[in-house]
Amino acid sequence: MIQQRANFDWMLKQLHDGVPGIEMIVVLSSDGLRIARYGGDPDAADRVAAACAGVQSLAAAVAQELPGSSGEMKLVVIEIDGGYFYLMAAGDNAYLAVLADVVCEPGRMGGMMRDLVVRIGAHLTSPPRRGGQAV
């Protein structure tokens, strides 16, 4: 069961406050539905969550081509004009996405995201859906 959105606020705020340059944090399900967000516009967070489903799928397809890989996406970092995009697996069928400006230091961000996922990964699990409903 997905934990109430309000319960995520303090966890996401802690990440936001710990790394300078974060513009938006989104917790999403593997099918691209926003579970929670910190910062940014709600509509933008929904668009980011939907796009992340495609990024995650693409990364998993590429990972399958690496001998010895399980094919699971762990972390994607994309440097974009004006900043960075991070997507990290954060539990069964759940992901943590962050948009940050150029002030953000990528190594620090990856470490802080990993620490957050380790501490609360079990709470970031999203059950599979069938017909729009959790199964």
Q: Care to describe what's here?
A:
The protein has 135 residues and is α+β, with helices and mostly antiparallel strands. It has one domain (5-126): Dynein light chain 2a, cytoplasmic (Beta-Lactamase). It has 3 helices and 7 strands, in the order αββαβββαββ. It has helices at 5-18, 42-63, 106-120, and strands spanning 22-29, 34-38, 75-80, 83-89, 94-101, 129-130, 133-134. A hairpin with a 4-residue loop joins strand 4 and strand 5 (94-101). The radius of gyration is 14 Å and the shape is globular. The termini are close together.
Please outline the helices and strands.
Blueprint: H1 5-18, E1 22-29, E2 34-38, H2 42-63, E3 75-80, E4 83-89, E5 94-101, H3 106-120, E6 129-130, E7 133-134
Antiparallel strand pairs: 1-2, 1-5, 3-4, 4-5, 6-7
Number of domains: 1
Intertermini distance: 10 Å
- Name the quaternary structure: single chain
Biggest sheet statistics: 5 strands, antiparallel
CATH class: Alpha Beta
Order of strands in the sheet with the most strands? Answer: 2-1-5-4-3
Can you count the beta strands?
Answer: 7
Number of helices: 3
The appropriate CATH architecture is: 2-Layer Sandwich
The fourth-level CATH homologous superfamily is Dynein light chain 2a, cytoplasmic
Low-confidence stretches: none
Question: Helix coverage percent of residues?
Answer: 25-40%
Backbone CA Rg: 14 Å
Beta-strand percentage range: 25-35%
- General shape: globular
Q: What is the fold-level CATH name, i.e. the topology?
A: Beta-Lactamase
Protein name: Roadblock/LC7 domain-containing protein
Pfam families: Robl_LC7 (PF03259)
Domain Roadblock/LAMTOR2: 9-100
Organism: Streptomyces seoulensis
